[in-house]
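Lecture notes, unit on protein representations.

Consider one protein chain, 127 amino acids long.
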Amino acid sequence: QVQLVESGGGLVQPGGSLRLSCVASGFTSDFHTIGWFRQAPGKDREVVACISDSRGTTYYVDSVKGRFAIFKDNNKTTVYLQMNSLNPEDTAVYYCTTDLTFDRCIVPMRYWASHSWGQGTQVSVSA
């Protein structure tokens, strides 16, 4: 059974940076994707970034392009979300989850809605 645990959130000032970690265990192959998502108060959960473990391809929502980067360590046990130039609109609970059906990132959030979710990690951007 695949398990993912998020960490790395915190309080940061506008313009600052944070690196989130998603530690994964239980994968039996690299045919899967791992995505980072976020949910701000009063808003729907959205896909932020996604990476295909087998292809190495990535996806970013427009609002984070050029500021965020998703990458995995060489052992493929941890997927990171490096977040730079943070602004208050990035404030949200961030989650990671995995999809074992496809090896390409599926963008519509409705596809991910029925996946398993952990506790997430809070990111707050405020002066």
